Amino acid sequence: MSFLNAYLLPLTVLAALGSGLIAGLFFTFSNTIMKALSRMPPEQGMAAMQHINVVILNPVFLGIFVGTAVLGVVLGLRAVMAPAGWISVWLIVGALAYVAGSFALTRIVNVPMNDALARADATAAVAAVQWPAYVEPWLRWNHVRTVASIVAALAFTLAAVQMSRATAA
């Protein structure tokens, strides 16, 4: 626990940064990418999303996405095991928002949708039905992931500010 206490502030800053990066990615999908793909003919939009879903599974994205979830669990457990006022509150809020609202939601909702899309044939007849049925619910859940990641980034940032103030005092 002493190692964790010694590095609590930098780990919290990393969790805030990771949450913010993921929030930005999800926001970009909600605000831009899915809108652009939806304006394309269904078979083209569907095929493009199939490619995106393959390319995004790279070490940089996965390191940030999974690493932030691991940090969230560690920081949340630390906050529960050694309560420290508002610092603990913000760590728990950040951990719950990211782990449940971003990471778990992705695994439970968006990944199965992406897997089903990957198995589909992006021909005009299939895409005309499957693509619109995919876009709306995927986008709705992506909005939730975006908000959860923003909340996590904010909560981890507030925890880091509280830690800095406590150290300076």
Describe the structure.
- The chain is an all-alpha fold and 169 residues long.
- Helices cover 91% and strands 0% of the residues.
- It has helices spanning 2-6, 8-39, 42-55, 59-81, 86-119, 124-168.
- The two termini are 23 Å apart.
- The mean pLDDT is 95.
Write the topology of this structure.
Layout: H1 2-6, H2 8-39, H3 42-55, H4 59-81, H5 86-119, H6 124-168
Helix pairs in contact: 2-3, 2-4, 2-5, 2-6, 3-6, 4-5, 5-6
The main β sheet shows up as: none
Number of strands: 0
Low-confidence stretches at least 5 residues in length (pLDDT < 50)?
none
Mean pLDDT: 95
**End-to-end separation:** 23 Å
Question: C-alpha Rg, in Å?
Answer: 19 Å
Q: What does the overall shape look like?
A: elongated
Helical percentage = over 70%
Structural class comes to mainly alpha
Number of helices: 6
Helices and strands, in N-to-C order? HHHHHH
Strand content: under 5%
Question: What's this, in brief?
Answer:
The chain is mainly alpha-helical and 169 residues long. It is 91% helix and 0% strand.
Can you give keywords for this protein?
91% helix; 6 helices; 169 residues
